[in-house]
């Protein structure tokens, strides 16, 4: 169970790292499944600019039986339900590969702006839970946060344009924040890196400003990000809805796994 202190940190800073959520056997099984997903040609599989290295695989809870179990891990569901104060379902899931020496940056951005403007999500009653498949260190492009920035609301102004939903996923990201927006905020609030051992879970608010640098190390920084949304916050109809692997149409409340993961 998420402790009261951990919940306070989440509300105060906008994020919290919880160690030891996945055990060694679970991580081995998940890593093997991730390696398999990297080889499957699917529109939700995104490559780095080199056209070869896998950058991310989206919608894994829809395509992989193991991931559909992962998102129902009792700790994860209970943490999301506690934060969102009620039943939840998965709006999005993805593996961010950030491969050794090849993984590219994620510019500074907030997530909720995508879900609000692209998917029609009524309110930021959602939460991200990232599960570390590798240790996140100072050198392999850990997630960086501007602590407390979740209280600022949406900072991004317009959409930068680009290639439809594909530019929601690339290193040249829609709704990336500008230097003018970031400089005074970071001067005031600072930057913190979310480092921690493999098997940790990192919970973060969808309005929190975040991004990550390139992986300069010879070690991967793979993580799974699961976005849980409140069942009372289901997106409304929008024109040009994004594909199901980016905007889950089934909002049935999740029941936690009963058996072993
Ligand atoms: C994200 O913002 O979705 C991912 C950032 C990262 O994996 O570093
Ligand atoms: Mn993000």
Observed structural traits:
alpha+beta; Jelly Rolls; binds succinic acid; seven-stranded antiparallel sheet; 261 residues; four-stranded antiparallel sheet; 20% strand; binds manganese (II) ion; 7 helices
Q: Can you characterise this structure?
A:
By secondary structure, the chain is an alpha+beta fold. The chain has a single domain, classed as q2cbj1_9rhob like domain (Jelly Rolls, Sandwich). It is 25% helix and 20% strand. The strands form two sheets. It has a seven-stranded antiparallel β-sheet with strand order 1-9-6-11-4-3-2. A four-stranded antiparallel β-sheet has the order 5-10-7-8, with no helix packed on it. The longest helix has 16 residues, at 24-39. It is globular. The model has no long low-confidence stretch (mean pLDDT 95). The protein binds succinic acid and manganese (II) ion (MN). Succinic acid (SIN) is lined by residues 96, 106, 143, 210, 212, 225. Manganese (II) ion is lined by residues 109, 111, 210.
Q: What is the alpha-carbon Rg in Å? A: 17 Å
Task: Give the H and E element order.
Answer: HEHEEHHHEEHEEHEEEE
The CATH architecture comes to Sandwich
Proportion of strand residues: 15-25%
Low-confidence stretches: none
Derived from helix and strand composition plus strand pairing, the structural class reads alpha+beta
Number of strands: 11
Order of strands across the biggest sheet? Answer: 1-9-6-11-4-3-2
Please indicate the count of domains.
1
Q: Mind summarizing the main beta sheet?
A: 7 strands, antiparallel
Identify the bound ligands.
succinic acid, manganese (II) ion
**What percent of residues adopt helix (DSSP H or I)?**
10-25%
Overall morphology? globular
| CATH hierarchy class name | Mainly Beta
Mean pLDDT across every amino acid position: 95
Tally of individual helices: 7
Q: Gap between N and C termini, in Å? A: 17 Å
Any idea of the CATH topology? Answer: Jelly Rolls
The CATH homologous superfamily is named: q2cbj1_9rhob like domain
């Amino acid at each position: 169970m998420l402790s009261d202190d951990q919940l306070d940190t989440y509300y105060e800073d906008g994020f919290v790292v919880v160690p030891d959520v996945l055990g060694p056997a679970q991580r081995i099984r998940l890593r093997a499944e991730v390696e398999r997903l990297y080889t499957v040609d699917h529109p939700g599989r995104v490559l780095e600019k080199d056209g070869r290295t896998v950058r991310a695989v989206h919608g894994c809870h829809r395509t992989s039986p193991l991931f559909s179990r992962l998102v129902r891990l009792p700790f994860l569901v209970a943490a999301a339900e506690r934060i969102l104060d009620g039943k939840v379902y998965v709006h999005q899931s993805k593996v961010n590969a950030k491969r050794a020496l090849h993984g590219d940056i994620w510019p500074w951005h907030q997530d909720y702006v995508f879900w609000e403007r692209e998917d029609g999500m009524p309110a930021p009653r959602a939460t991200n839970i990232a599960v570390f498949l590798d240790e996140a260190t100072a050198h392999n492009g850990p997630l960086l946060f501007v602590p407390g920035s979740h209280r600022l609301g949406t900072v991004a102004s317009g959409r930068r344009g680009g290639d439809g939903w594909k530019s929601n996923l690339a290193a040249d990201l829609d709704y990336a924040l500008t230097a003018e927006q970031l400089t005074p905020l970071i001067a005031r609030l600072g930057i913190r890196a979310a480092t921690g051992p493999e098997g940790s879970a990192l919970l973060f608010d969808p309005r929190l400003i975040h991004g990550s640098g390139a992986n300069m190390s010879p070690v991967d920084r793979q993580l799974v990000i699961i976005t849980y949304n409140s069942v009372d916050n289901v997106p409304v109809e929008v024109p040009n809805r994004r594909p199901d692997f980016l905007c889950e149409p089934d909002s049935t409340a999740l029941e936690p796994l009963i058996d072993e993961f």
